[in-house]
Write a structure and sequence with these properties.
Layout lengths: L1 E15 L2 E8 L6 E6 L4 H9 L5 E8 L9 E12 L17 H6 L1 H4 L3 H23 L3 E2 L5 E2 L11 E4 L2 E5 L4 H7 L5 E9 L12 E10 L4 H22 L1 H6 L12 E4 H10 L12 H13 L4 E5 L12 E2 L2 E2 L1 E6 L2 E8 L4 H10 L8 H4 L9 E7 H9 L20
The chain binds adenosine-5'-triphosphate (ATP) and magnesium ion.
Length: about 425
């Protein structure tokens, strides 16, 4: 007989004849363990067990029986039971999980919600995505780096940054590591960073947050932006396979039908995309950004062709930031979309000093305020490119969540600054 010593929280209490069953969320487990206390064996313990409150933190010592009498998987027959902490108020979430809580309540009490197996599964998969990304990108020879989040200049222009006071100087929270990871291409063949993005737009959608996380990569000595797309495609497929192989139980709990996206991902040009949209009754001017409605229609068409993941390449340069390489009216850029939702943007960067300055002026930016960045382009900056992949977005589509807030522990949006 195996001795067990478990610690966890009481999720449910049932009594039947002379037996009490305590359902306990234990350790990191995704399945509760049933603690069995028999009156005939342990009259004192039964007294304690009868008074126990749902949600209490407890420790149980006992033995694993040869034959299980409860209906649910794992069981322990208690010899000792200690109550380590009792709730002073009833839980705002139904401890049994039978009554589903509203998302707002979950977000307010996320720490409590993490006792539910489904919640644990979401954040374990999240950690799994980060782990897979590290393995894949390090394996490709990219160095994991950390660049400043307090910055003196914004990457995408001034209107969308959070400003802060830095010892009397104006500073910003970083919108993306764009400028720094590019500067690093002057000294390294490849870098990646798993990092928060801070964006001050007044978003009001199920897929935007004001603080989100991204997996950013940049590689140098590229031939063209196809090299960057291959890296991203490889990463996405690796992540899906990694989660499918290593998180079977989590996937099952969340009732996800995880399909590895078909390779090679379909590549359509921006002009092709406009054509597809037109055939579906959506008329967009050449040059305009694809809004969420357009993305959705495109996603549907691609899925009908058997592609969950696809690249939209060669956007009009007008619609892209200054650092993207320009080729006439188009840009050497791509977006990666999955079933109608943008997961990543990337492309080849302008590595030539004078062309870069020209691009900045073209976008109405003052090269003087970017001199720290431009400096790095004077000393043999090789052709390079990269991407920013939204971690929250990826997790969202991977588990089929409808709202990005479901996959972020403590989301930051216009309404939420606490907890
Ligand atoms: P979108 O067009 O969807 O608003 P974007 O083009 O402004 O996104 P990028 O600058 O391309 O965003 O950032 C790279 C990736 O980071 C995006 O493809 C997306 O997956 C993710 N991302 C960007 N902004 C947000 C946000 N506010 N909330 C959540 N994820 C974001
Ligand atoms: Mg983008």
């Amino acid at each position: 007989l195996k001795e067990l010593n478990i610690k966890g929280w009481i999720r449910d209490v049932r009594s039947l004849g002379g037996i009490i069953f305590l359902e306990v969320i234990e350790g990191n487990s995704l399945t509760p363990i049933t603690v069995v206390i028999k009156k005939s064996e342990n009259p004192l313990l039964i007294k304690t067990a009868k008074k126990i409150k749902l949600g209490s933190a407890i420790q149980v010592k006992g033995i694993e029986p040869e034959r299980i009498i409860s209906k649910k998987g794992k069981e322990i027959h208690a010899k000792e039971l200690s109550i380590l902490a009792e709730p002073s108020e009833p839980s705002p979430l139904d401890p049994t999980g039978k009554t589903k809580a509203l998302l707002d309540t979950v977000l307010q009490y996320r720490y409590l919600a993490l006792r539910f197996p489904e919640q644990r599964a979401i954040f374990r998969i999240r950690a799994g995505i980060v782990e897979a990304s590290r393995r894949y990108l390090s394996g490709k020879g990219l160095l994991e780096v950390h660049t400043p989040k307090i910055c003196g200049a914004g990457a995408e222009g001034g209107a969308t940054v959070f400003k802060l006071d830095y010892f009397g100087k104006k500073a910003f929270l970083s919108q993306s590591p764009q400028l720094y990871k590019q500067m690093l291409m002057c000294g390294l063949p490849g870098v990646y960073e798993i990092t928060p993005y801070f964006r001050a737009e007044k978003f009001d959608t199920p897929r935007h947050l004001n603080e989100s996380w991204g997996i950013d990569a940049e590689i140098s000595f590229i031939t063209d932006f196809g090299d960057v797309m291959s890296l991203l495609e490889g990463l996405i497929v690796y992540i899906f396979e990694y989660i499918k192989d290593n998180y079977k139980k989590e996937i099952e709990l969340l009732d996800v039908d995880l399909e590895i996206p078909r390779r090679p991902f379909k590549r359509i040009t921006y002009s092709d995309a406009l054509e597809i949209l037109r055939n579906n009754g959506l008329r967009l001017e050449w040059g305009s950004d694809l809004d969420s409605e357009a993305e959705k229609v495109l996603g549907k068409t691609m899925m009908e062709e058997g592609y969950d993941a696809y690249f939209i390449i060669e956007y009009p340069w007008e619609a892209k930031p200054f650092y993207i390489m320009k080729k006439g009216a188009i840009s050497l850029s791509f977006d990666l979309d999955y079933r109608g939702i943008e997961l990543a943007s990337g492309g080849q960067r302008e590595h030539r000093y004078w062309e870069l300055i020209e691009n900045m002026k073209n976008k109405g930016l003052d090269p003087k305020s970017f001199s720290f960045y431009l400096e790095a382009f004077k000393y043999g900056m090789p052709p390079h490119g990269g991407f920013g992949l939204g971690l929250d977005r990826l997790l969202m589509v991977l588990i089929g969540a409808r709202n990005i807030r479901e996959v972020v522990l403590f989301p930051r949006d216009r309404q939420r600054l606490i907890p």
